[in-house]
Automatic annotation (TrEMBL), chain A:
Keywords: Membrane, Transmembrane, Transmembrane helix. The lineage of its organism: Bacteria, Pseudomonadati, Pseudomonadota, Alphaproteobacteria, Rhodobacterales. Pfam families: TctA. It comes from Tranquillimonas alkanivorans. Residues 17-440 form the DUF112 domain. This is Putative tricarboxylic transport membrane protein.
Automatic annotation (TrEMBL), chain B:
InterPro entries: DUF1468 (IPR009936). Residues 23-166 form the DUF1468 domain. This is Tripartite tricarboxylate transporter TctB family protein. It comes from the Bacteria. The chain crosses the membrane at residues 16-34, 54-75, 96-126, 138-165. Keywords: Membrane, Transmembrane, Transmembrane helix.
């Protein structure tokens, strides 16, 4: 208790709170720009924390982290462009909600869901860090491959109108992920001697191209409307803070389930927020009494995605604190920040530096409160973005996408890739292919391939995927998931056909 | 033509466009499957670098073949004759999209040559003036935004983040 109070006192001191406030604002703004990920924001923050006390520095970085997960929501809801990969599922319902004239409600639901997601994950972190971490590191490549198979089965419920085109899109994504050097032996593949393909297709460039460029292009389809000065989003610019808070709290099952999904996936090294939001969304859709309403602007969809991705912030800290294993790039930077201050990260961290660990728990909770306050105070200003006419907004956001894609690796060739992928994204959108399965394929492809090959390098016996209990469990869950999605898809098609026959 | 007739015609032309996309994807996928099969395997592992891509393209080829058969069965013969004119109408209605991609292509090609500030200024000014209503206020806003997001953003990245956007050759 003494250590807890010591850590809390350090986090709650005036200078730390001020730095955290700045960090929170910076995280929200950075992640709101398409292409600027939470990871980039944290990398830019790291050198600024060198001169600070260890706990102060890590608290600032945690506030950027928590703010960043929420910032991705802003462009997802208002522009239909996920600011970060962790906001992909947020576009499914927050964007239609904005287009239906409720941009304020869409943002507000997302912000509250993020807040509760972070708080729930912090509570889980405090209670369950050591046992969860031990479970997570016991998983071998067999379990990871089966987990990815399960994650890929989510594609079946993201396919939109056509199951066939959804699966084709997912396979295009997986095929795109195989371009460049292979992940095990580093052998070049499918680069055809071109420099632009030699390093592979970075999934963030694909994400920006597929979602952002194609979305921006589709905004200018109606020439007459854009030249008249049509606004990006028409509707009520009202955040409705408390009313929406009640709306989110009235969905406790969805909120807790999505947060737990976020924590569990965040605790698995290598998975993280980019998968958690999709899995949480998928689970919410399956559990819903009105699954057909998902994708049309339902509050449950926004709650699931945002609480799921924000909860990965706490989940990611579980293996870091309990075992010294960073689960994601962001956690690796947090670990580096601790090491810069001479703190050895490992299983003894909680014993040797209990005040620091408890301070991190407090900092997580404070950062989420700060994010909430910043959003409530400034969201009206963010919502003004929706009032900017399309003719001004579309070219400016295009430039932001280009800068974001370039700043990822400082490579000009990534820009050519961005243009090409953007064109492909627009063509696929025009041909009514769902884009989310494609992005999921690009994200999961390398993880699936690496673990499949690693598993068979360790032991050539294929049956291990079925005889290891956790692996088998994931495979059964994947199979059940596909069966459920195919059943509801066929049911929906039969209903549509019956309705068509009824209408004269 | 009735409203239903027009909708059916649009659906059929859309299906022909999709059929073409399946055919293109199939050709690419078959090519990449063959390319993957030529990647040598390693003696250190059961699966080589080509195994996973072959698996992906194999499944993709099967799916595309089934999609092509489905489309061919669904489309009436007379639909093909109308496709060219329907596509022309579709492209004409989306002329600004083509302008946008053309400008984006030129912008991305010019970036490494003339540098970020100049290329971005011209890109923003041209594209926004093309899209904007032809008023004096709009022209002033265009100029302001072009300066802020070309010179301003370049300064912000260089001075605050130490990230240098393309400076030109």
């Amino acid at each position: 208790m003494e250590m807890f109070l010591q850590g809390a006192a350090e986090v709650l001191s005036a200078p730390t709170l001020l730095y955290m406030l700045i960090g929170s604002i910076a995280g929200i703004i950075a992640a709101a720009i398409p292409g600027f990920t939470v990871t980039m924001a944290i990398v830019l923050t790291l050198p600024l924390t060198f001169a600070m006390e260890p706990l102060q520095g890590i608290s600032v970085m945690l506030s950027v982290y928590v703010g960043g997960y929420t910032g991705g929501l802003i462009s997802a809801a208002l522009l239909g462009i996920p600011g970060t990969p962790s906001a992909v599922a947020t576009t499914f319902d927050a964007f239609p909600m904005s287009r239906n004239g409720e941009p304020g409600r869409a943002l507000s639901i997302g912000v509250w869901a993020s807040f509760f997601g972070t708080i729930i994950s912090t509570l889980v972190l405090i209670v369950a860090a050591p046992p969860l971490a031990i479970f997570a590191v016991r998983l071998g490549p067999w379990e990871y491959f089966s987990l990815i198979v399960f994650a890929l089965s989510i594609v079946a419920s993201l396919v939109g109108n056509s199951l066939q085109r959804g699966l084709i899109a997912a396979l295009i994504g997986l095929a795109m992920s195989t371009v460049g050097t292979d992940p095990i032996l580093g052998r070049p593949r499918f680069d055809f001697g071109l420099e632009v393909l030699a390093a592979g297709l970075p999934f963030l460039v694909v994400l920006i191209g597929i979602f952002a460029i194609s979305q921006l292009a589709s905004e200018v389809e109606d020439a007459r409307a854009i030249q008249k000065g049509e606004k990006l989003v028409q509707g009520e610019i009202d955040f409705k803070t408390w009313q929406v808070m009640r709306e989110v709290v009235m969905r406790p099952v969805n909120l807790i389930r999505s947060s737990i999904v976020g924590v569990l996936i965040g605790a698995l090294p290598g998975a993280g927020g980019s998968i958690a939001n999709l899995v949480a969304y998928d689970q919410a859709k399956r559990a819903s009494k009105t699954p057909d309403e998902f994708g049309k602007g339902i509050a449950d969809g926004v709650v699931a995605s945002e609480s799921g991705n924000s909860a990965t912030a706490g989940g990611g800290l579980i293996p870091l604190i309990a075992l010294g294993i960073p689960g994601s790039a962001v956690d690796a930077i947090l670990m580096a920040s601790l090491m810069v201050h001479g703190i050895s990260v490992g299983p003894r961290l909680i014993m040797d530096n209990a005040d620091l660990v408890y301070g991190m728990f407090v900092a997580m909770a404070v950062a989420s409160c700060m994010m909430l306050v910043v959003c409530i105070v400034s969201m009206r200003a963010f919502l003004r973005v929706a009032e900017v006419p399309k003719w001004a907004m579309v070219p400016v956001v295009l430039v932001c996408c280009v800068v974001g894609a370039f700043a990822l690796n400082n490579r000009v060739t990534d820009l050519y890739l961005l243009g090409a992928v953007g064109l492909l994204g627009y063509a696929l959108r025009a041909l009514d292919y769902p884009l989310a399965p494609l992005v999921l394929g690009v994200i999961l492809g390398p993880i699936a391939e690496t673990n499949l090959r690693r598993a068979l390098m360790t032991d050539a016996d294929w049956t291990l995927f079925l005889t290891r209990p956790v692996s088998l469990l994931f495979l059964i869950a994947g199979l059940a998931s596909v069966a459920w999605a195919v059943r509801s898809h066929l049911k929906g098609r039969t209903q549509r056909q019956a309705q068509k026959e009824k209408t004269p | 033509m009735s409203h239903d007739g027009q909708a059916d015609r649009k659906t059929e032309s859309g299906e022909i466009a999709r059929l073409l996309s399946y055919a293109v994807l199939l050709a690419v996928s078959v090519g990449l499957f063959w390319e993957a099969s030529t990647i040598p395997t390693s003696r250190f592992e059961v699966l080589g670098a080509g195994a996973f891509p072959m698996l992906v393209h194999g499944v993709l080829i099967l799916l595309l073949l089934s999609a092509i058969i489905g489309s061919l069965r669904q489309l009436p013969r007379h639909a093909y004759a109308r496709f060219a004119s329907d596509f022309g109408d579709w492209a004409k209605a989306r002329r600004l999209v083509f302008v946008l991609f053309l400008c984006l292509g030129l912008y991305l090609s010019a970036l490494p040559i003339v540098g970020y500030p100049a290329a971005t200024f011209v890109f923003l000014a041209v594209l926004q003036l093309w899209f904007a209503p032809k008023t004096k206020t709009a022209a002033i806003i265009v100029l302001f935004l072009a300066i802020v997001f070309s010179l301003g953003l370049n300064w912000l990245f260089a001075e605050v983040f130490n990230v240098f956007l393309p400076r030109g050759s």
